[in-house]
Amino acid sequence: MATLRRLRETPRHLLVCEKSNFGHDKSRHRHLVETHYHNYRVSFLIPECGILSKELKNLVMETGPYYFVKNLPLHELISQEFINTFVKKGSCYALTYNTNIDEDNTVALLPNGKLILSLDKDTYEETGLQGRPSQYSGRKIMKFSIEESVMMSYFSNYQIQEHQPKVSLSTLRDLQCPVLQSGELQGALEVSCSALELFDWLGAVFSNANLNNEPNDFISTYCCPQPSAVVAKAYLCTVTGFILPEKICLLLEQLCHYFDEPKLAPWVTLSVQGFADSPVSWRENEHGFRKGGEHLYNFVIFNNQDYWLQMAVGANDDCPP
Fold it and tell me: Is the pTM here over 0.90, yes or no?
């Protein structure tokens, strides 16, 4: 019965919200993007927009490629040839694929050259390495993301496949959107919604949930927070794959320039989800799955260059930086 109760509990998470301006000298938006290494999905939402600009569309279509290497021995990642060819040149990312972080052995290569091993007890003892116990109860294919086409030739002795991210473009019509004010992170009664309310609303939009709270809807009883406004069109773009932080930085920069010319939209959002079974979230902070495996962040970009930054991880992870 205790196990059933735990399964029925809503997964908890830690959410950190802050506000700043892209023009501030101490703004840390770029650092937060660059140190969230293993990104699975990127989505941006633009209210009052029916057609994507050429600049944004080109960035979206140039996100890939990335590579799958099957049955790659771990020693390949610490060979001098691999280090000279990829690691010393910087920006090489790798992550085991189709493994469960709380049960299986998991490996991640960070762009600073560090190799993170999350091992079960037996494997750890066999390696003879010095490490520290995971805070999680438990502990195949490698997935790479690098800009050099030499990856295909380097791993030609293994089963390697090149993949392109999957891109989904859609126009949402008559979308009820929360009213936001950049200076009111907590919201203002009957004036604007809070960052937390927006965070929940975005999750419903990305899940394609009904936002009307209709009495005959047995799937979702959620409704848009108030105050809100209905926009005739909103553009939603989602990219799924293995996405480099450098690509996300370019996309964030382009979205900041969206307001260089007057727009009807008062804000746009950029949301990034990490791989649920990555052994780290930000930097080298340990990450586990437990009930959700979430580690993600969201930017709300306002037309005055203010922004909100929301970072979320599971309740057992370290607090986001």
Answer: no
